[in-house]
Amino acid sequence: MPIADPNILISLRNLSLAAKTTIDGFMTGANKSAIKGSGMEFSQYRSYMPGDDLRWMDWKMYARSDRYYIRESESETNISVRLLVDASASMDHRDGQYTKMEYARYLAACLAYLANMQGDAVGLYVMREDGIFSLAARQGFQNLNRLYYQLEQAGPAGKFTQPVHYKDIYAGGRTRELLVFITDLYQENNEIYTLLDLLGALRHEIIVLHLMGRNEMDLTYSGYTTLEDLETGNTVQVDTAAIKKEYQEKLNTHLENIKKELLGRNIDYRLLITDEPVDQALRNYLKARNR
Fold first, then answer.
1. Where are the alpha helices (H) located in the chain, listed in sequence order?
2. At 32, is the secondary structure helix, strand, or coil?
3. Tens-level pLDDT at each residue, the chain (291 residues)
4. Contacts of 17 by beta carbon, 8 Å cutoff, 6+ apart
5. Which of 86, 109, 137, 189 could form a disulfide with 123 if both were Cys (CB 3.0 to 4.6 A apart)?
């Protein structure tokens, strides 16, 4: 089983170790890639040419390959990255050995570590029912450790943050940021779309990483099953075999509507299934974004 498998790394409660292990392996697999710039695309290493600024020489690459490489444009692409994590009760949905919240913590930790490697400032919003926890975007491993600690304490509990609390976002300053929102997009009254409209009005670039379990996608329950809404406590008993076809049709329509809503807001959208190892999910997303 690969070291980046969520079953192994999510069991490591130390998020900093889990993130470092995954991203070190991710960067090895990516070979000449590094996170960069608006939209988190990859920058390229290129061979040294006479006249290049030696400050951008990658000496570690030289030590490994005995060749000179320049980190092209890396010095110009430092940005401020803010991770938004949905900490509502629906994120406690379990598929196999782990929940969406555990996957979200791990994914956020990896993204924070990757951005910090690039020299970008990294911050955090935890979306809770009673308000929004905010950690200012800063560079450095001390700030990264604070972010890991807050992720480890995060949810899941209650409903998604209500719009009355969105005013707290204004207190975070008006600097444009790259916002990466990790959520299951469960909402009762379009409160998440209201949040995204506010963030868009502040001219932030937004990426939504939509988490769903494999059991949600394929309705992999047998016989009569009782399903519970984790945020309201409401339950319903269903015969999964009888409703599976109708369920799949409605789910496909629901996902298409989400995609249209977000693309209509110029928001980059990606559906992630939580049985996919995080390093592979990141690699697939970044490749698709580059295309």
1. 6-9, 15-30, 59-65, 100-118, 141-153, 191-201, 214-218, 240-263, 278-290
2. coil
3. 344 455 544 544 455 655 566 555 544 444 333 444 443 443 556 666 665 666 667 777 777 777 776 665 443 445 788 999 999 999 999 888 889 999 999 999 988 988 888 788 899 999 999 999 999 888 888 898 899 999 988 889 999 999 889 887 876 556 778 899 999 999 988 999 999 999 988 888 899 999 999 988 887 765 556 555 556 666 666 666 667 788 889 899 999 999 999 999 999 999 999 999 888 888 788 777 666
4. none
5. 137
Burial class (CB in 10 A: 0-12, 13-18, 19+), 244: middle
Residue ranges per structural domain of the chain: 6-24+78-290, 31-75
Question: What is the rounded distance in angstroms from the CA atom of residue 51 to the CA atom of residue 100?
Answer: 50
* Six token digits for residue 11: 């069991």
For the domain covering 6-24+78-290, report its CATH number. 3.40.50.410
Which residue type is seen at 136? A
The conformational region for residue 219 under phi > 0 = left, psi -120 to 50 = alpha, else beta, is left
Tell whether pTM > 0.85: no
- Which residues are CB-neighbours of 288 under 8 A, at least 6 positions away? 270
H/E run at residue 125: strand 121-128
